[in-house]
């Protein structure tokens, strides 16, 4: 049964401004915050906690994840050229051989048969030619007819000008494709066309077949001061020429990094191979990394114009759809021919300090690989962790038929709160108490999450999970929903609030958030899945309509303490939980088996 707690909400401090990606000030709390009964204290304090004076060692290995992809040590960032080839998954990534800070970038390389356990190999590409001496940066892999994989990647020369380069496997009979040979004609593309910026020309996409039967690819760039996915074509994938117009461009001044372009059928969670014929009725997604997040548009690839045409042209970038609303960037997708699906990875950076990273000896990880597909209405992408990650589940617990009234907390016991997978369905007993929706909130959902935290009651919500909670609630992270009534539909706000996630100083602790439409009159249930992996938390709301990745560093984890997970409701309307399932997640073998002694 849920525990009921009286609410004596303190007035929230008025915030003059709120920066969604910056560390909030540490507001001094009343003695009720973090004191006495921990569960009750969760609802008594709307303010973020004052940082503690004694900082646990950031070098603790307790923050190292148990089942996320990351090398054994040093810096990593963008996924680069993931693929499935001859029974093996390959994950290439931006890697610094020399330490846990950005620089000296090469292509790290790991292989797997199940997307869960990984063997680390020697780097696939290193900085050893004039066109990449400043770095082997992000790129993609395309599998040519006859089963011939080819890497195309960005290199920086001694003048830091960016060029595109090609590499082929030295021995395709090697199942791990350990060695790669760079093409003799590198660089195959230079930013020498009129209007191009020589230092803003990078991150080529996977290739696809254009309307003339020749290869196409897009490269992120700046054209005449505007953002653009520049379009190139080739008959043989070795010699490329620029098409006289971009795949798509926007009048914004921020360069589009790491573009991704792929086809999808509405309502079909299977993937499509861009090197094959695209079926009628398919739409295309164009993703770009900009404004420190990954955004995308849905539209069509117009074969007559050889260009991407979005279904809706939205000038204000703040209203563009996002792949993930948290610490997630530079994502890359690929077609998994083994299971006929499209899989996407993203880079999640550390949100502690560079000095912490130096002490830890590592920085950065990749999110859980996700299946990504187009919703049935063709308006947005949906994502869900690949099914293989469920092989790590153990010690399953289940609860059915819970009722959460205002102020209720229900503790989810008997799972490892530091390594867990939690799936919970919330069913609304009534939708009459939904508060009105203000469309201006769409411009800054993070701000709204920060102003209306979990301790602020609403009509319907907040309800969700409290995770990584210390015994007395000094530390906890909240993942929750609020439901609003628009003129013709319901809008659900999903938040991941980190402002009380840790007592450690010097951390970024924002409140992330995103909205999604939901047909509550028809569906009534809102699902939440949260994967907790020590310093990484990934949450999927509404069946994958909104995804939020968070990085958290609670002192209780560094101190090898005990943590708790709760389901909660702090809205006026009662919420039912027809099904709650949770598992402890076992540790995966991620780059601990070394195919290369130096990794």
Could you name the key traits of this structure?
Fructan_Metab_Enzymes, eight-stranded mixed sheet, glycosidase, Fructan 1-exohydrolase, 599 residues, disulfide bond, Glyco_hydro_32_C, mainly beta
Task: Walk me through what this model shows.
This protein has 599 residues and is mainly beta. Helix content is 5%, strand content 44%. Strands 1, 29, 31, 32, 33, 34, 35 and 39 form an 8-stranded mixed sheet that branches. A hairpin with a 6-residue loop joins strand 26 and strand 27 (381-385). The longest helix has 7 residues, at 38-44. Mean pLDDT is 89; it is low at 1-59. Residues 388-583 form the Glycosyl hydrolase family 32 C-terminal domain. Keywords: Disulfide bond, Glycoprotein, Glycosidase, Hydrolase, Signal.
**Which structural class best describes the helix and strand composition?**
mainly beta
Low-confidence residue ranges: 1-59
Number of helices: 5
Shape estimate: globular
Strand content: 35-45%
Total beta-strand segments: 41
Distance between the termini: 49 Å
Helix content: under 10%
